[in-house]
């Protein structure tokens, strides 16, 4: 394997701020692990994005202390024991931030992907829907002839997590029917959502019979420029 492995662990931390806190930890272990640090993403419905980022930074600090030795189990034990202190420290730092910097933290991002094909379409679509739901991403999985596009909106950290899952999970099958990873994926665009862009409220799978229908989907969402810049080259 050339990409390593990714896996998600849900950790429950008891008696923090008079409530249980559920942490979703996504670890991506490169093939050179543990000589190389893992990529870590953190999400939680009970914590702010800034707090999740602080938890991630603390975990990476701890990971450096365990370089060249297996560390995931130690990192999970550490955060269970120290989350309360990390959150208290995060709250202190957060209170010192300006309103402007907090506004920047709350930006919504958008990702446009092009897939070459789906052999196991039903399973593949169900997997994409599950990932979008788990990461609270909205948007569209769009089919038009042989063209397959995925348009996502959400927190930047969730967008990054989705990309890791998309690139490292066995989501399709090869010509012999064996499970395989998606190697024919292109990131067409990754950018912050602007005021003229419409926010998608749900994630939907849609099929279009003509290019005009597909273009109208983008135009309705205020994404005319995105369509004209990135979609026509895919058709060639």
TrEMBL record:
<dbReference type="Pfam" id="PF05773">
    <property type="entry name" value="RWD"/>
</dbReference>
<dbReference type="InterPro" id="IPR006575">
    <property type="entry name" value="RWD_dom"/>
</dbReference>
<dbReference type="GO" id="GO:0005634">
    <property type="term" value="C:nucleus"/>
</dbReference>
<dbReference type="GO" id="GO:0033235">
    <property type="term" value="P:positive regulation of protein sumoylation"/>
</dbReference>
<keyword id="KW-0539">Nucleus</keyword>
<protein>
    <recommendedName>
        <fullName>RWD domain-containing protein 3</fullName>
    </recommendedName>
</protein>
<dbReference type="InterPro" id="IPR038840">
    <property type="entry name" value="RWDD3"/>
</dbReference>
<feature type="domain" description="RWD">
    <location>
        <begin position="1"/>
        <end position="86"/>
    </location>
</feature>
<dbReference type="InterPro" id="IPR016135">
    <property type="entry name" value="UBQ-conjugating_enzyme/RWD"/>
</dbReference>
<dbReference type="GO" id="GO:0005737">
    <property type="term" value="C:cytoplasm"/>
</dbReference>
<dbReference type="GO" id="GO:1902073">
    <property type="term" value="P:positive regulation of hypoxia-inducible factor-1alpha signaling pathway"/>
</dbReference>
<keyword id="KW-0963">Cytoplasm</keyword>
């Amino acid at each position: 394997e050339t990409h390593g492995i990714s896996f998600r662990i849900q950790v429950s931390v008891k008696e923090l701020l008079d409530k249980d806190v559920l942490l979703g930890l996504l670890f991506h272990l490169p093939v050179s692990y543990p000589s190389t640090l893992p990529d870590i993403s953190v999400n939680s419905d009970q914590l702010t994005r800034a707090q999740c980022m602080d938890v991630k930074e603390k975990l990476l600090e701890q990971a450096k202390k365990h370089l060249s030795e297996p560390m995931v189990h130690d990192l999970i034990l550490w955060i269970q024991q120290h989350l309360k202190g990390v959150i208290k420290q995060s709250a202190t730092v957060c209170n010192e931030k300006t309103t402007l910097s907090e506004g920047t933290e709350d930006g919504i991002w958008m990702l446009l992907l092009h897939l070459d094909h789906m052999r196991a379409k039903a399973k593949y679509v169900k997997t994409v829907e599950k990932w979008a739901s788990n990461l609270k991403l909205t948007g569209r999985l769009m089919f038009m002839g042989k063209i397959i596009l995925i348009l996502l909106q959400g927190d930047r950290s969730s967008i990054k997590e989705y990309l890791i899952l998309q690139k490292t999970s066995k989501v399709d099958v090869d010509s012999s029917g064996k499970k395989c990873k998606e190697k024919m994926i292109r990131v067409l665009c990754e950018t912050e959502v602007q005021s003229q862009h419409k926010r998608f409220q749900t994630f939907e799978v849609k099929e279009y019979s003509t290019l005009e229908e597909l273009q109208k989907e983008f135009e309705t969402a205020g994404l005319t420029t995105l369509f004209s810049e990135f979609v026509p080259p895919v058709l060639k």
